[in-house]
Write a structure and sequence with these properties.
Elements: H1 2-28, H2 40-55, H3 78-91, H4 95-98, H5 100-115, H6 139-157, H7 160-165, H8 175-190, H9 196-215, H10 218-236, H11 242-268, E1 273-274, E2 279-280, H12 296-311, H13 336-351, H14 353-356, H15 361-381, H16 395-413, H17 423-451, H18 453-458, H19 460-463, H20 467-478, E3 483-486, H21 494-502, H22 506-512, E4 514-515, E5 525-528, E6 531-533, E7 546-551, H23 555-560, E8 565-569, E9 572-576
Parallel strand pairs: 3-6, 3-7
Antiparallel strand pairs: 1-2, 4-5, 5-6, 7-9, 8-9
Length: 579
Amino acid sequence: MEERRRQSGIAFAVGMIVLLLLGTVLRFVLLGKIPYGLNQDEASIGYDAWTLLHYGIDRNGYRYPVYPITWGSGGGSPLMIYLAVLSTALFGRSIASLRFFPALLGAFTIALFEYLPFIGGHAGDRAEKNGSLADPDGDGVRRGKAILGCCLGLLLAVNPWHFILSRWALDANTLPFFELAAIFLFVSAAVRDSGRGRRVRYLLSAAVFAITPYAYGSATVVVPIALIVLAVCAIRMGRMNGRELGEAVLVYLAVFFPLGLFFLINKLGLSPIRTPWFSVPVFTSSRSVFSTAATLPSMIKNSMRYLITFLTIGSEDGEIACNYIPGFAQCYRFTAPLTIGGAALCFRGAFSSRGREGMSIRCRITDVCFLVLTGATILFTLFIEPDINRVTLLLLPILYFQGRALAALLGLFWGRKGEQTRMSLRFLQSAGIAFVVGIALAAGLFFHDYFGSRYASLTRESFMPGYPEAVEEAVRLAGDDRQILSTYTHLSAPFIIALYVAETPPDVFLSTARWKDPGAEFRVADRFAGFSFGLEDTGLIDLEKTVLILHVSEAEHFAAAGLSRTETFGDYVVVSIPR
């Protein structure tokens, strides 16, 4: 019996390691080449990171800003930008280095998610009464943790939403890691009865929770709401005292203070703060994602429709192509029953007196964390124009609910043999295995589409394949005495990609930039240094003094005009008269 337990434990441990390695490899393989091209938000983050690394200022002239204003009204989180500073310092300026930390933190998130069921459970855990996981000798507890860890690892490793956001450098893409790290520390504190170790963990958890708004703006509203409810629950359960709560609040406020000061200065219309060591910028224009009083009823109606779809079969309505592949949505659609069933299990375990019997403190606290975070995010989403980036905080709760339901089904498969004679149990066992097989098959189809040609075709407008290489070649051909004129066809904010690739010093950019609309919500330059953007009157172009970057659909016209040198890079062509 003991030998069989040992072998079973080794098998589950190996399974979790294999899933972690699989998820890590998938997130890093061909990272600089797929997605092919460079998104304008990636280039925005990359250029500010490069200028901060080499010049100590961002593209708007602020020295080490607590919140780089990027496009003028925001659009790039400080955490992602400063992580890109580090990766650029380590690996140089490249698309792969820009995407390094999203991929790395994506892999770390899998590791934390897998280990979540094992937090502090060896000292006082009692059996979890999910199917046959409850047993008097404790085997069910260990088996239940191992099954849940494997389920969480599987679901996150091959989840379409988490996989895609781990492979490109949008500001929201690091949020799941910091969200999970904060929950991990909170649970590891709550499972301890008392002592300095519990206090330290609560303080660390508060610090990481306070970091999440630096990762993405939606956490600024959602996390404080969730923390208030979590603190009340922890105190009612006897897992937190007044001193621990007070210290945690102080730590949260201290870490959040620079960002809070930034929001306060902008809200009150005060002047920016500039020092030799840091700055607190002001936006050049304002924007809000919240609804007005006039639009509130329709906004709530649309948001409720969006959330119901999102939390069940997944939403494809209004999502930009780089965030999903049609047909797969955010999670595999047939897993919707797992989401609903898992949420019911968590609610029963966390708040039902019947469900709490036999539940470990670790399991109850974890269930409460994900339920509260889900509720806070849903409440926030009701009052905004929803999109997938603004509900990123829902990713891990959805997968946790699915993992809880799948672990309950698979726990029956590994339960006592005598229990497997009932027809209902056989059906549930078969359902668990069917879900695992279905997830594996769906993941195979998804990765075939992602690494094949379908995802590249879907994201041509988002990542502008070949344009960075075209800019690099144009810079080489132009030298110091020719201008570079770029098309705007099938491009979004090409100036920021040109800035990043050409490594234009920020002072040069600031002194030569001409903004299309300086007060626009997203400021776009149509000229700086040796670059101009937009083919307005082609008859006025001095072909002797100009290198052209054209879309492939435009190249024939200029080739017919006598230009003999062309180089094709993806969807773009560099055209010039050879010297």
